[in-house]
Amino acid sequence: MAIERTFSIIKPDATRRNLTGAINAIFEKNGLAIVAQKRIWMSRAHAKKFYEVHAERPFYNDLVDFMVSGPVVVQVLEGENAVAKNRELMGATNPANAAEGTIRKLFAESIEANSVHGSDSVENAAIEIAYFFAGYEIVG
Ligand code: RTP
Ligand code: MG
């Protein structure tokens, strides 16, 4: 299996409830190393651009409002099959549909305030990592 990197965000609903450590423990326990991490408060422009693929969706404006409502923790996770592994650990977008033991089942408040973001492909992971991190900030 390939060693991959994926991009992760611990969203404002989770940072607000001091869940960063609990979420990181799940990543680390499951073979994902945190090779870059920083706590930031995203600007509206940055959040709008990040979620541009959803610009036409009815939830876009609410989503941007939510993502700038408090600090987030942006991360690069590294490990075997990291993209798919992280999606599995996160669980379904809507916590009502998320499997037992997943981050969203454990912690998400709603389909929007769902505690974490994870890249959905290796290609998008590279784009998203480059959007938030300089090369020297990632220490594998
Ligand atoms: P993410 O991009 O955050 O990892 O989540 P995802 O792939 O599971 O879900 P996606 O379809 O890409 O949607 C991005 C984020 O938009 C919010 N959302 N709200 N109100 C709604 O119906 C709705 N649907 C999606 C969620 O915060 C979702 O994670
Ligand atoms: Mg997505």
Automatic annotation (TrEMBL):
Cell compartment(s), UniProt: Cytoplasm
GO MF terms, alphabetically ordered: ATP binding; metal ion binding; nucleoside diphosphate kinase activity
Active site per the UniProt annotation: H117 (pros-phosphohistidine intermediate)
PROSITE patterns: NDPK, NDPK_LIKE
A biological process term (GO) from this entry: GTP biosynthetic process
CDD domains cross-referenced by the UniProt entry: NDPk_I (cd04413)
Keyword Metal-binding: yes
Coiled-coil boundaries: none
Record field: catalytic activity: a ribonucleoside 5'-diphosphate + ATP = a ribonucleoside 5'-triphosphate + ADP; a 2'-deoxyribonucleoside 5'-diphosphate + ATP = a 2'-deoxyribonucleoside 5'-triphosphate + ADP
Co-factor(s): Mg(2+)
Assigned protein family: Belongs to the NDK family.
Task performed by this protein: Major role in the synthesis of nucleoside triphosphates other than ATP. The ATP gamma phosphate is transferred to the NDP beta phosphate via a ping-pong mechanism, using a phosphorylated active-site intermediate.
PANTHER family from the UniProt entry: NUCLEOSIDE DIPHOSPHATE KINASE
Name of the featured protein: Nucleoside diphosphate kinase
Organism the protein comes from: Neoroseomonas eburnea
